[in-house]
Design brief:
Elements: E1 7-11, H1 22-30, E2 36-39, E3 43-44, E4 49-54, E5 60-66, H2 72-90, E6 95-99, H3 105-108, E7 115-120, H4 134-144, E8 147-150, H5 153-159, E9 166-168, H6 175-179, H7 189-192, E10 198-202, H8 211-220, E11 225-229, E12 246-250, H9 257-261, E13 266-269, H10 284-290, E14 295-298, H11 301-308, E15 314-316, H12 319-331, H13 335-345, H14 350-377
Parallel strand pairs: 1-2, 1-6, 2-5, 3-5, 6-7, 7-8, 8-9, 10-11, 10-13, 11-12, 13-14, 14-15
Antiparallel strand pairs: 4-5
Helix pairs in contact: 1-14, 8-12
């Protein structure tokens, strides 16, 4: 990596080795031209130190270790000190700041970045167990940020009047990675025993997932096999539907997902319609399509707007229509829909998304530099 671009510190509420999604896609690309430090939430297992590890993509993952029992606000103050020590130790004089959660505002309050980006990936205030002070802190983050990016158009519409520079960047896709599913990849061993037809989902199983929808359709169509891949978060496993045609395979590495998709007949997005899903723009939508698998989704705003309106994804509004759309996907010739999806996906890539973001960040950095130099001349 050879560049004069300022370094980048990303403060994230998501762990680097959790589900591979927006932060990993963007920060791995940022690391091609910048030194990138990805600060995770702390782990509470003794000590008071910042563990650093270098990911193969070039990102330095920073994991704060704090004493067990430290309360959240004290933890943020301690992480702030660890981060300030890191900045001094690594010689980070000119750096941009990238933040995902307003709750982490205390961590960055004392920092002086050349530019601050708030990447509003989701409407976190609507998620289960969201702290009541999150909205107030978001307002303060709007005041500090030079740029606000949103994870979809619905979220952009909700935030565009709250900051002078809000830009929608819906989920993108690494087409070559997921297109491997079309190349006859070997069947994963834990899926090979499952009969066909297979209806698959990968992602986090949390309050956005609609267990009743899957329970109803699975009970009505026992010959259909539901393959569910991903960690269970913030909900009880007891809340998930059970049955002989429901198969929970756990979390899988990003690299292995195409091999599972290669042997699905339909890919599913069984999202509930609730506060947590009002603003989502699921990354899996273009990933499923890149794999060449027909997709059935509930009527999530951004999915309908970007994919349903173009006839690329079949949209359902309840259990009956979800079942009917799966039946259609299983029995129809999907070749025309797949060709149109491929044409649409040819305009998308995380590389392009990052390039557009990078241009905005560089412009903000340039403005800040000019202002700083002007102030120094006064």
């Amino acid at each position: 990596m050879a560049s004069s671009a300022p370094d980048l510190i990303c403060v994230s509420h998501l762990r680097w080795n959790f589900v591979y999604q927006r932060p990993q896609h963007l920060m791995s690309r940022a690391a091609r031209t910048r030194r990138v430090y990805y600060l995770e939430e702390p782990v509470f297992e003794g000590g008071h130190e910042l563990e650093l590890r270098r990911d193969p993509c070039g990102v330095t993952v920073c994991v704060p270790h704090l004493e067990e029992g430290t309360d959240p606000e004290t933890a943020r103050r301690q992480v702030a000190r660890l981060l300030e020590d890191l900045i001094e130790r690594e010689g980070l004089r000119d750096y941009a700041l990238w933040i995902y959660s307003p709750m982490d505002l205390p961590i960055i309050e004392a920092l002086e970045p050349v530019a601050t980006v708030y990447d509003a990936m989701d409407e976190l205030a609507n998620f289960r167990f969201a702290p009541p002070e999150l909205r107030e802190r978001e307002q303060e983050l709007f005041r500090r940020a030079d740029l606000v990016f949103t994870g979809g158009y619905r979220l952009w519409e909700a935030k565009r009047t709250r900051h002078p520079s809000v830009h929608p960047f819906p989920s993108s896709v690494d087409v070559p990675h997921f297109a491997q599913a079309r190349e006859g990849l070997p069947e994963p061993a834990d899926q090979a025993r499952i009969p066909r037809p297979r209806l698959g989902f990968f992602g986090v199983l949390d309050e956005r997932f609609d267990p009743e929808l899957i329970r109803t359709v699975a009970a009505h169509r026992p010959e259909w096999q539901f393959v569910l891949i991903g960690p269970v978060v913030k909900i009880s496993e007891d809340d998930l539907p059970k049955g002989p045609n429901l198969h929970y395979l756990g979390m899988k590495p990003y690299a292995e997902l195409p091999a599972y998709l290669a042997h699905w007949d339909v890919a599913l997005m069984p999202f509930a319609r609730n506060e947590a899903t009002e603003f989502i723009s699921p990354t899996k939508t273009p990933e499923y399509l890149a794999a060449g698998v027909p997709v059935v989704s509930t009527d999530i705003f951004d999915v309908v707007r970007e994919y349903g309106s173009l006839g690329l994804v079949r949209i359902a509004t309840d259990a009956d229509s979800f079942e009917a759309q799966i039946e259609s996907a299983l029995t129809s010739d999907n070749s025309d829909r797949r060709a149109r999806a491929d044409a649409y996906l040819s305009t998308l890539s995380w590389d392009q998304t990052w390039a557009r973001m990078e241009a905005l960040i560089q412009a903000a950095e340039h403005r800040q530099t000019l202002q700083h130099d002007g102030a120094a001349d006064d």
